[in-house]
Design brief:
Largest sheet of chain C: none
Strand order of the largest sheet of chain D: 1-2-3
Oligomer: heteropentamer
Shape of chain C: elongated
Largest sheet of chain D: 3 strands, mixed
Strand content of chain D: under 5%
Distance between the termini of chain D: 85 Å
Strand content of chain C: under 5%
Radius of gyration of chain D: 34 Å
């Protein structure tokens, strides 16, 4: 299926809703007295977009949602600019959920309440729109445009707390770093264009499969492109912006960046490296197109990413910064599924991203709750959290952190389990061992937080921490699946497995 | 055709010299003006390559927009009349070696490999074709770009304006 | 244009690209770094146009270039905004001085 | 089990050990309450009554055995399956044959007597009930040991008596010395048990070559020849088994090298010393060798070792006994020495003689201990013989019984010790003249130090402290009655085993009834070589030696012909050597106890410092590494950048290095990594 | 009683849920709820024990429900003799630990909720026969343990908790790798332990890495995971710290149940699934290491001045017997090993409860800080003596049987090691007797003349264990009958595989 512009609109429900929403919110910002309403509006927009996205996946004849969320109407839209397939829809839903949670968190955030909210939500929603296109781009131009769209809006969001020096610095560093990374990336894209003679993914693939190109030049192109994509997923050595930005940005934005931006980056990465730079040799098994051994390159990146991320996280005392390093490490874990060149690996990655969504957002939510009550983000602010009113956030935090560590029966374990399974199925025992050792190391710093919350005695004088209904509900919404998916995850896994289907024409 | 070479080398030299000055100058204002030279040089190269519309856009947006923005930034953030605005460099040696190595690699590879369809197409007037494309196959990026600009401008305004309180 | 082939243009772009890298690596001033980024982007632009010239479908590359220019402008706008924001709040632009985010 | 012909299955055998156990449980758990509610009378009614019933049952066993043909004198009581695992059959089953019968009679008989003695001896103690509980428990364990039909069950009794010994030595636990002595006894015994259990394992697996192994005595016996030819580490298995079991025996029966606990064990109440450390428990090793005689007979090497250890122990302990001043310690060394004789007998294959000496020894040694206890009781706890003397006037009954027993132990005709000891010496003579020589020397020493004790305690001038002297009195009836009973035994028990060589008497009694009684057990293992003339000659020699010993004791301590102190001074080096028990305690303490503690500290240090240190160290290294990678952002990349750059700028850069704007450094990561990848690929 | 095992595993979880719903201040209600929640598993365990068919090696009370179909993961619960004994031990100790925890006054709700979570997870480990399920339960124990030590523990509890956590996590992730390698090795992929065992011949033994085959590498990965739990030298240093800092009831569970999981895991997984490797590695990794454990643990115990640490090190020593017995591949040895697991569970539970009793009263545990307790607390001293002598392996008490069986069984194959191991009876006697002497005997310490005697609640926890210790010493077949058939089968598998292997079992 290759639809033209007008016909494509029928399949662009989520994006259209978001785009219209952006206009309404920004416009509403000029009219509405009660700025908080704008947040509610944004929530509504994202929710309806979510409905639209889910709707795209469900054929009306079949009410079994899970089985329904499968291949239906694959194809190119807008003259092969973007693609609609299982893979893109999976990410769209995930990204919309991330935006949804981020907006929800923003609604209760003291930091955000002090800013101009109309623009805030408008930019946030538009950022989400960019992410949706990242997940669907099937053209180098769309890939670059959407990535840059997300980046630009993220710079704004990261620097949104103008009077907070850290926030401004975060924006500046993010901007510079992102500019260099994306500049490098498009330089690589230009080389790729020169090699393949086209910007279209499928045509590039065909050209590369045809074999009339220099592997060395292609390798150069791939490395340059990797700089941009690696920066988006915060993989070492393109990770350096992450700690500063995560620490400086408003907490909901940090959460959104760490989950949404990263997931979108992975979507871009996977679609670029799998359907474009590889070909399927057998059912569920891939082979990189001759000459460019990117899996080995990524293997190195993967191992270095998780190791450095974890080790650097060990010494952190600021929760946001620690979670930033941890999110770097998690990018490394996810990359484990990336290098094995199998569908199992890919579906494990998708599943892990779902798990990561739940637990990482949850962790940031607790950070938000604590920061709201005490204004603190450092580890000492969590001292004896469980014993000064914050039992619920403390327990939830413990669950999220242990899930991040990968301890059953929490969803993080299942995610890691699938990643390790994919790795071991390909007999990459060294990689598995590195991953495992990293899991153990990661326990150390996660447990430090847990220790502070539960094991330390209150010194007296700490503020009480209470969680209101607003955040409480979201906390519940995140905790419940974190546990439940650790016990019964088959539907989600099936969804992830089925989402590893790329439309290639 | 010698004429092509005659035009190419000065223009390329202008671009490279401009770029070098951007990179090496210790005065930010000088850098900004050097960027202007580089942009013009590149613009010339575009013309050599038959990309007239792109060249025009380059001049309009870059020269008219970006450089002016940069100068604005310099002026707004420094006291006007400050003759020497610092643009210090640090760590030149390692940076030079890394970038030199990167450039060398690129050059070696570019000159060694053959590129897809290395043959010169007939130059055509591009403006109409580009306009056509914008409204046909590239309509989505085109529209999306407008959303990008909207969001970015709104964001930029919010970030840069003074706090109201 | 005999004698002046694709590789000549690519060489120019590679040099500009490397100078852009050098610029971002060495500059202390945020605006200086932004200028370096422009160099990088221009290098990519030049590549696109050059490749477009030497390919069957010249339009794709040029359109890409136009989008890059557009986004470069947008980025410059945001960059300016952020720098202004920092200046208004803290009165400095040297990245050297933006160092409160540390380990 | 097919080979059970000729075995009488009975169901009352189990009650012989179980009754004291019942007593132990009742008194042990509810004793404090009973004592408080019903008084001490109720306690000892239970605790003494049950062993007496056991004794009566033992008599019944004796009668039942007597009623059977000599070859079929075996009673078996199988209670239930204890362990049954793939050939390892160890049941709770009790076996009474003539050998066991002798032992249960001695244990329950002498045991009952001592129980009664304790009623008075322990009357003042608040923990009266506890004492009787352990005494009953001991009786149970000892009877189990004796009646066990397999090695594992025997081991239960074996360790059980050790436990009770431990508990009773440290009965007055508030005194550190007592509990230390208890610990010493238990731990030294454990060393022996360690050897014993290894012997059991080796025996089991050696027998299971080809078929299933067994630990049941009656099944081992016919299969001992299967061990022939097997070796382990170059030693014949039979000998190795014998030696390992003998290690156990040296522990339990206080032989070289594990005898050191017994003298210390005298810290316990005197009835305990009498029952456990003289009459019964310490003889368990002898009994065990008798029980396993079929094995030892197949292992000449083991027998030889047993004989030599026994002889040397007999002599060495006797020498130490000569210089002891503590009334109970003398008896302790004498016990060790007498046990040595028993092992000497076993070692030369004279099993019946060894058991006979065990039998007679039970009477006279128990009597001696109880007599000593009576003296101590009378003197209010005084144990130093230097501060006694002349007590025979005050304690005639004690004196009389003590003297009878002393004569018995010295081997004076016709007291029981004469017959049993001479039988041993005679058999030793037949086996090896050196063994005999050592034995006879020891016998002379025995006579000397025993009479030294008698003279120092009961004769001569009183050296008792004044205030103690006022309280000196003859012990109550309940204490003297046991003394009389045991003295009678000491006097006449020998007549059941009069050798045929004794002129007149022996012929009249028709040789040793004791030996005939035990013959079904030891049949085929005992060699007899008769030279009646030599035997008689040796009897005379030993009588003369004993007499000489007595005379010497008189000469030193009563007759004042020799001066003991001057002698000690003249031979002071030897005296000190002997007085300090050859420094064996010190040696063991230095080597084993301190060695173990040193190892322990070493282990703990290793654990704490090295292993934990490695773990923590690696954690520390990880932390360090993390700081390093944290600096990776800050230090390494910056350092790489600035170190080079600033180096050229001179010292001023050093300060700056701490405050670099790190965004450049961040960008190095991108640029550097990409360039690195390119270079690696191109290269 | 069709879903007996499920009920046993999940009733504690249900209890946890109920407790979480109770108000925080209703402490006695919470405690009684915990008590009620641990009772049915105990009754069921007893019922299971009574109705277990000891004559067959087949798995019993099988429950099998597909769980994650796409990965062929099943909810597969069943028991054999070994599991039944362990389940019984778990149910009993958990039940008895509730009264032992009665004195908890900080965060009562959390404590009992976590305790019940731990309880259910332990049950699950012993019943699970799907490797994945096993792993989930295995890991599930980690969290409550971490908190129970870390929140309710002694002064250095944080260090101890994190040490415990890190150690065991390290072990279990290695186990995860091995599990996945096994899973992918078979086609169709399966986690079913019985199927994995049936295919045991397919795990390659030809050298691939340092002379070790695939099977050996798997074995080592699994072994390290289990060895940490046992804990075998040199993976043991978490144990003294964890024990010393943990509250009494948790020490009991830790020593009584958790340590058994290491050896249970080896028997359940390494033996049937990797028999050739088991035969090859048994000497060094089980027998020699076990013997070293025996001696080393005893020596370390001897040097301790903290009573609880002493008991902790004695656990290391006693678990060495289990390893030695397992490696003996004789019916006696292997039966003895599992019996020793059970016995150590009861004896060491008693010891820790007793340490808890005195700690509650005197608030310290220095062995030298007491003296003459026998005259102050005679009943307590009596019970302690029973436990100490049981730990010493005194005949007539339970440990004797198991230690003798282990040593007897081990003699055939490793006489030298057996001698070394058996020599430990002397060391054990040494450190325990010295402890008794220093703490219980001697002159009463003036400071503690008024210490109250052990109370009824404490006796309630101790008495059943004491009875078991005695009964099993006299009638060990109460447990041995359960084990024998299953263990003989295991033994047969390994020994017959050992004959195939080149290295093995000479």
């Amino acid at each position: 299926m290759n639809l033209g512009s007008v016909a494509s609109l029928g399949y662009s429900g989520p994006e259209l809703v978001l785009a219209a929403g952006v206009l309404f919110i920004i416009g509403g910002g000029l009219l509405v007295e009660h700025k908080r309403r704008l947040g509610d509006l944004a929530l509504l927009v994202v929710a309806s977009s979510l409905v639209a996205a889910v709707g795209l996946r469900i054929p009306f004849s079949d009410l079994r949602i899970v089985d329904g969320l499968m291949g239906w109407g694959d194809g190119w839209l807008f003259s092969r600019m973007i693609v609609i397939d299982n893979f893109s829809l999976f990410f769209k839903i995930l990204l919309l959920l991330a935006a949804f949670a981020a907006i929800w968190m923003s609604l209760g955030s003291n930091e955000v309440a002090r800013t101009s909210q109309g623009e805030y939500y408008g930019v946030l929603v538009s950022s989400c729109l960019g992410m949706l296109y990242m997940a669907a781009a099937s053209n180098l131009l769309m890939a670059y445009l959407s990535l840059e769209f997300v980046s630009l809006t993220s710079y704004v969001l990261a620097g949104y707390l103008k009077r907070d020096r850290r926030s401004c610095e975060a924006a500046l560093k993010y901007l510079i770093y992102g500019g260099v990374a994306s500049g490098t990336m498009i330089y690589g894209m230009s080389l790729l264009y020169g090699l393949a003679g086209s910007l279209d993914y499928a045509e590039i693939h065909d050209a590369l499969a045809g074999g009339e190109y220099s592997p060395l030049a292609l390798f150069f192109a791939v490395v340059f492109v990797l700089a941009g994509m690696g920066y988006k997923i915060a993989a070492v050595p393109f990770h350096m912006w992450a700690p500063d930005v995560y620490e400086g940005a408003p907490i909901p934005i940090t959460a959104f960046l760490s989950v949404g931006s990263k997931a979108a980056g992975f979507a871009l990465l996977i679609r670029f490296f799998y359907p474009v730079l590889s070909e399927q040799v057998a059912e569920g098994s891939w082979r990189f197109l001759g000459g460019v051994d990117w899996p080995t390159l990524m293997l190195v990146v993967c191992m270095v990413t998780m190791t450095l991320g974890n080790l650097a996280a060990l010494g952190q005392s600021n929760l946001k910064r620690m979670l930033a390093y941890s999110s770097i490490a998690h990018a490394g874990y996810v990359l484990m599924g990336f290098v094995v060149l199998t569908d199992e690996g890919l579906s494990a990655m998708l599943f892990y991203l779902v798990a990561y969504y739940l637990m990482n957002l949850g962790a940031f939510l607790v950070v938000l709750v604590v920061a709201n009550c005490t204004g603190r983000e450092d580890l000492d602010g969590y001292r004896a959290l469980a014993w000064r009113g914050g039992a619920i956030p403390a327990v939830a935090m413990a669950i999220f952190l242990f899930s991040l560590t990968g301890i059953p029966p929490l969803v993080g374990f299942i995610g890691k389990f699938y990643l390790f399974a994919a790795v071991i199925a390909e007999h990459r025992y060294v990689l598995a061992l590195v991953g495992i050792l990293n899991s153990v190391i990661s326990l150390y710093y996660y447990a430090r937080v847990v220790k502070a919350m539960f094991l330390d005695e209150p010194e007296g004088g700490e503020e009480l921490v209470t969680v209101g209904v607003h955040h409480g509900v979201l906390l519940g919404l995140l905790v419940a699946p974190t546990i439940f998916l650790g016990i019964y995850w088959e539907p989600v896994m099936r969804l992830a497995a089925n989402s590893v289907r790329f439309f290639q024409g | 055709m010698q004429a092509g070479a005659l035009v190419f080398y000065p223009v390329a030299a202008l671009a490279i010299a401009g770029a070098a000055l951007v990179a090496l100058s210790t005065n930010i204002v000088h850098s900004a003006f050097a960027l202007l030279g580089m942009l013009v040089g590149v613009c010339g190269l575009y013309l050599l390559l038959g990309a007239d519309f792109v060249a025009a856009v380059q001049l309009l947006i870059y020269v008219g927009g970006v450089v002016v923005l940069a100068l604005f930034a310099v002026m707004l953030t420094h006291r006007v009349g400050d003759p020497v605005v610092s643009n210090r460099s640090v760590g030149r040696l390692p940076a030079l070696s890394i970038c030199g190595a990167g450039a060398a690699c690129c050059l070696v590879v570019f000159w060694r490999v053959g590129w897809q369809g290395e043959r010169l197409a007939e130059p055509v007037a591009t403006t109409a074709a580009i306009g056509d494309s914008f409204l046909k196959e590239y309509v989505l990026p085109f529209e999306l770009a407008s959303v990008v600009l909207l969001a970015v401008l709104v964001g930029a305004v919010v970030v840069s304006r003074k706090e109201l309180k | 244009m005999e004698g002046i082939g694709l590789n000549h243009f690519l060489s120019v772009s590679a040099i500009i690209f490397a100078l852009g890298w050098y610029c971002v690596l060495t500059r202390r001033n945020a605006i200086g770094i932004l200028l370096g980024i422009e160099l990088i982007l221009n290098a990519a632009n030049l590549n696109f146009v050059a490749f477009a010239r030497f390919s069957d479908r010249p339009i794709d590359g040029q359109i890409f270039t136009i989008f890059i220019i557009m986004l470069a402008a947008a980025e410059a706008a945001v960059g300016l905004a952020v720098i202004l924001g920092i200046y208004q709040n803290f009165g400095l632009t040297d990245v050297e001085q933006t160092e409160s985010l540390r380990l | 089990m097919g080979e059970e012909q000729g075995v009488g299955l009975v169901a009352y055998l189990r009650w012989i050990p179980l009754l004291p156990l019942v007593g132990a449980i009742v008194v042990g758990t509810a004793g404090a309450i009973i004592q408080k509610r019903f008084g001490k009378r109720a306690v000892h009614a239970i605790a003494c009554g049950l062993p007496v019933i056991s004794f009566l049952l033992a008599l019944r066993v004796f009668a039942a055995l007597l009623a059977r043909e000599p070859e079929q004198r075996v009673l078996l009581d199988r209670v239930f399956t204890w362990i049954s695992l793939d050939g390892l059959e160890a049941n709770i089953a009790f076996l009474a044959d003539p050998l066991a019968c002798v032992m249960i009679l001695v244990v329950s008989g002498v045991g009952s007597v001592i129980h009664f003695y304790s009623i008075a001896y322990m009357h003042e103690d608040d923990s009266y009930w506890r004492f009787f509980a352990f005494l009953n428990l001991f009786t149970f364990a000892m009877l189990t040991l004796v009646l066990a039909d397999n090695l594992l069950l025997m081991f239960v009794g074996w360790e059980g008596v050790g436990l009770c010994s431990y508990a009773l030595i440290g009965f007055w636990y508030k005194d550190h010395v007592n509990t230390s002595a208890g610990n010493k006894a238990f731990i030294v015994n454990r060393v022996g048990d360690f050897g014993f259990i290894l012997g059991v394992f080796l025996l089991f697996w050696s027998l299971s070559e080809g078929k299933q192994g067994t630990l049941v005595f009656r099944q081992i016996a016919p299969r001992v020849q299967e061990l022939a030819g097997q070796t382990l580490w170059g030693v014949p298995v039979a000998a190795l088994v014998g030696l390992l079991l003998f290690v156990g025996a040296t522990g339990k029966s206080a032989q070289i090298p594990l005898y050191v606990w017994l003298p210390d064990a005298m810290q316990g109440p005197t009835p305990v010393s009498a029952l456990i450390h003289a009459a019964t428990m310490v003889t368990a090793g002898v009994y065990m060798i008798g029980r396993m005689s079929f094995l030892y007979s197949a292992a000449p090497l083991a027998l030889e070792v047993v004989a030599w250890v026994g002889a040397l122990t007999a002599f060495a302990a006797a020498t130490i006994g000569v210089v002891q001043n503590d009334i109970k310690r003398v008896l302790a060394y004498s016990t060790i020495s007498q046990l040595g004789y028993m092992f000497l007998a076993m070692g030369v294959g004279a099993y019946a003689a060894g058991i006979f000496h065990l039998f007679t020894h039970a009477f006279f040694k128990a009597c001696l201990f109880l007599g000593a206890g009576s003296v101590i009781h009378a003197l209010g706890g005084e144990q130093d013989m230097q501060r006694m003397g002349g007590l025979r006037r005050h304690m005639p009954a004690t004196y009389a019984t003590f003297l009878v027993s002393t004569l018995a132990i010295a081997g004076i005709f016709p007291f029981s010790g004469f017959f049993s000891k001479d039988e041993i010496l005679w058999r030793a003579w037949q086996a090896n003249r050196w063994l005999w020589l050592i034995g006879i020397a020891g016998a002379g020493l025995t006579a000397f130090y025993m009479f030294r004790q008698v003279f120092l305690t009961f004769h001569g001038e009183s050296r008792v402290e004044e205030e103690r002297m006022h309280h000196v009195h003859e012990s109550p009836r309940i204490m003297t009655l046991p003394l009389w009973i045991l003295a009678a035994g000491a006097a006449v028990a020998g007549f059941v085993g009069v050798p045929a060589a004794v002129p007149g008497l022996g012929e009249w009694l028709g040789g040793s009834a004791f030996e005939r009684w035990l013959e079904p057990v030891f049949a085929g293992h005992e060699g007899h070589a008769a030279s009646v003339g030599t035997e008689r000659l040796l009897m005379v020699v030993s009588l003369l030696v004993a007499g000489a010993g007595i005379w010497l004791a008189w000469a030193f301590y009563l007759g004042a012909i020799f001066d003991p102190d001057a002698t000690a001074v003249r031979w002071r080096r030897a005296y000190r050597w002997v007085y300090h028990k050859y420094y064996v305690d010190e040696l063991y303490d230095a080597v084993f106890v301190r060695g173990a503690l040193l190892c322990a500290r070493l282990g703990a240090w290793l654990d704490l410092v090295v292993i934990d240190g490695i773990v923590n160290g690696s954690a520390y290294l990880t932390a360090l590494w993390s700081r390093f990678t944290g600096l990776f952002d800050l230090g390494v990349i910056d350092g790489m950048v600035n170190g080079v750059a600033d180096g050229t700028w001179g010292l001023g850069g050093r300060v700056r290095r701490l405050q670099t704007g790190r965004i450049n450094a961040y960008l190095y990561a991108i640029v550097g990594a990409v360039t690195l990848a390119l270079i690696v690929r191109v290269w | 009683m069709e879903h007996l095992l499920t009920y046993m595993t999940f009733i504690p979880f249900a209890g946890m849920a109920v407790i979480l719903c109770l108000p925080r201040r209703a402490t006695s209600l919470i405690k009684w709820t915990a008590m009620v929640a641990t009772t049915p598993p105990l009754l069921m365990a007893i019922w299971l024990y009574r109705n277990f068919d000891t004559t067959t090696v087949a798995l019993q009370f099988v429950e099998r429900v597909p769980w994650i179909r796409s990965y062929n993961i099943e909810y597969f619960m069943a028991v054999d003799g070994v599991s039944v004994s362990m389940v019984l031990l778990t149910a009993l100790l958990c039940f008895l630990c509730i009264p032992a925890s009665w004195g908890i006054d900080k965060g009562v709700k959390g404590y009992f909720a976590l305790f019940l979570l731990l309880d259910g997870a332990m049950m699950g480990v012993f019943c699970a026969l799907d490797f994945f399920l096993f792993y989930i339960f295995w890991e599930l124990m980690l969290l409550p343990m971490y908190f129970l030590i870390g929140i309710w523990g002694g002064p250095r509890r944080e260090y101890a908790a994190i040490k415990f956590f890190l150690y065991t996590l390290l072990g279990s992730v290695l186990m995860l790798i091995a599990m996945l390698a096994l899973y992918f090795h078979n086609d169709p992929h399966t986690f079913d332990m019985t199927k994995l065992a049936a295919l045991s011949e397919s795990y390659g033994t030809e050298p691939v890495f340092w002379g070790l085959g695939f099977q050996h590498l798997l074995w080592i990965a699994l072994f390290i995971g289990f060895a940490i739990k046992i804990p075998a030298f040199p993976f043991h240093t978490w144990l003294p710290d964890a024990h010393v800092e943990a509250p009494t009831a948790i020490s009991v569970i830790l020593a009584g149940v958790l340590l058994k999981m290491g050896t249970y895991g080896i028997l359940r997984i390494n033996y049937p699934i990797l028999p050739v490797a088991t035969a090859d590695m048994a000497f060094w990794c089980l027998a020699a290491l076990g013997t070293w454990n025996i001696i080393y643990g005893a020596l370390c115990a001897m040097a301790q001045s903290d009573l609880k640490k002493l008991v902790a090190y004695s656990s290391i020593s006693h678990m060495g017997y289990v390893m030695l017995g397992m490696a003996s591949f004789s019916p006696q040895g292997i039966n003895g090993a599992v019996l020793q697991m059970f016995n150590h569970g009861t004896v060491t539970a008693m010891l820790f409860l007793l340490v808890g009793v005195i700690y509650d009263r005197a608030h310290h545990r220095r062995i030298d800080g007491f003296g003459g307790l026998a005259s102050i607390m005679p009943v307590y001293t009596g019970v302690t003596a029973l436990a100490f002598f049981a730990a010493m392996g005194l005949p007539g008490l339970s440990s004797f049987i198991s230690e003798v069986l282990v040593l007897l069984g081990a003699w055939r194959r490793y006489p030298a090691l057996t001698i070394v191991g058996a020599s430990c009876v002397v060391l054990t006697a040494g450190y325990l007797l010295w402890t008794i002497q220093r703490m219980y005997l001697g002159k009463p310490n003036e400071q503690y003349l008024t210490l109250p005697e052990i109370n009824g609640r404490e006796l309630f926890s101790l008495a059943p264990l004491g009875v078991i210790v005695i009964v099993l010493g006299v009638y060990p077949h109460a447990v041995l009958d359960l084990l024998n058939a299953s263990l003989l089968e295991l033994n047969r598998i390994v020994t017959s595989a050992g004959q195939v292997s080149a290295l093995a079992l000479r």
